[in-house]
User: What shape does this take?
Amino acid sequence: MAVKPKLVSAINDQIQAEFQSAYQYLAMAAWFEENNLQGFAHWMRLQWQEETNHAMKLYTHLMARGGTVALQAIKAPAKSFSSALQVFEQVRKHELAITERINVLYELAVKEKDLPLQIVLQWFINEQVEEEAVVEGIIDRLKLIGADGPSIYLLDRQLGARQAEGAGETA
Ligand SMILES: [Fe+2]
Ligand SMILES: [Fe+2]
Assistant: This one.
């Protein structure tokens, strides 16, 4: 079943939003690296990779359905921040906006009776639940240790241990 033009353009918009997320997280990785928080930087680099994977998941779906991928411009991301907590508060705000976008796109797929797209988007709906929870947990820990406490380095070590998605899996 070919994708309806209305959905092709909505999927292309979401591909842009995922690449925009990736770009934002890469800018955050650079900020952490400049501020000697290598674990946070590592976490953000993996986040950049994940968002790129999200964009490619939609790209692949659109291709498989005979739709045209039309890549859009990516804006320059925010690059200066005041603290690790402020960075993660921006991540939360950003992810909540993405969740809203995914929900609207899903509602459109339902309205247009596009079942394959609904299934792809169900994966994204789950992913957003997980991302929001992870970010919330990091914000809680940052608040607990305070902005400038030396314990930030303990959290930096924890985040530095994050593994790439699918790492350790055999398939
Ligand atoms: Fe994403
Ligand atoms: Fe995300």
Notes: The chain has one domain: 5-69+80-160.
